[in-house]
Amino acid sequence: MLLAERLGCLPSLIEITYLAHGKPVIAGDHSNSGLCFNLAHSDELAVYAFAHGRPVGIDIERIRILANADDIAEHMFSGIERRTYFSLNPSDRPRGFFNCWTRKEAFLKATGDGLCRPLDSFDVSLAPGDEPRILGVRKVSGDSCGWNLESFAVTDDFVGAVVSKEEPHGD
Description:
The protein is built from four helices and ten strands; from the N terminus they run H-E-E-E-E-E-H-H-H-E-E-E-E-E. By secondary structure, it is α+β, with helices and mostly antiparallel strands. A hairpin with a 5-residue loop joins strand 9 (about 145-150) and strand 10 (about 160-165).
């Protein structure tokens, strides 16, 4: 219904297909509309992102204590992210962990790479209170990588992130 509202048609007329790594895209008669979208859910919440003419990815998670969060961070986060995460006060680690996780997931969903791109091949900010940013992608700085990252909190118990390709200059 949300896609139909943006496309000005009946929901039954929208076809969706999936790219190689699972990213949903509009197919069929509306495939040339330029409308890009993504969705995520956690517990009872669902979030959607829409962009015109540029890829977008979104993720949301309920902040909670994971027994294996330190192990996941040790093996999945980049070196910069690991150092930041393990420097956090233990009471800030759950929020830092899910800041990192949602930002990484939103980036992977936006690029369409899914988990084919190693999680440690790009860096995001994660410390509570720090500006949400892509710090770097491989050897390209976050300011030059061509992607925008925003973070949001629906409630104090949930954190989310949305990543989109930068708008082309002149548009």
